[in-house]
Amino acid sequence: MNAEILTSDTEQNTEQKIIAAAQEEFMLKGFDGARTTAIAEKAGVTHAMFHYYFRTKEKIFEKIISQKMELLTSLIRESIASENRPLEEKIRHIINSHIDFVADNPELPGFLVRDIFGNQARLAMLKDKIDVVAPLLIAGLQAELNKGFEEGTYRKIDARMLLLDIISLNVFAFMAAPLVNAVLSGFMDDKEAFRERRKKENFDTIMRKIKA
User: Fold this and answer.
1) Helix, strand, coil % over all residues of the chain, rounded to 5
2) Residue 190 gets which letter from DSSP?
3) 77 vs 109: CA distance, rounded Å
4) Rg (the chain; Cα; Å)
5) Residue 99, SS3?
6) pLDDT tens, residue by residue, 128-143
7) Which of 45, 70, 83, 183 falls between 20 and 30 A from 37, CA-CA?
8) Which of 104, 110, 95, 101 is nearest to 198 (CA)?
């Protein structure tokens, strides 16, 4: 039994090393520029070992995208799960969780634009992942916004536009960090402080938009 557990743990560790190396390779060189030989070398495994775990570059690419979308989906579900949580707190949690996700994966937005949005097959794959949670999130958010409007608390707001505003506010600064930091003279040098300040600024901006 112990030998079986050890073998399982070793295989999982090897798989995660390959995934981490592949992610670095994809983010740096894009899908077309990435090479499985380079991924194997970065992971410290043989090329044959890479193919044992993932077969092709497409398979590990799909695995990485799936992992990222599953993480983002779980964060969103956690943000809206509690029926007793006020809408303002749900919005705060969505903003905070999404900023943490983007700040921890700053290359991902550019990667999506460069390697997925221009490819119909990859875009369809991403859409399938997003469609698991997006309709429920939008419907639930719209229902709460409508209720707030009827009570005179919120303006008449389209939940889809609100989510687009949140995503836009959260993503740009981290996606364009080198330019933003250069133009604003080191404004983002303290990354943790900037992250927390950005959460507050974005939440305040969104609440000014929706409150009546």
Assistant:
1) 80, 0, 20
2) S
3) 21
4) 20
5) helix
6) 878 877 888 888 889 9
7) 70
8) 95
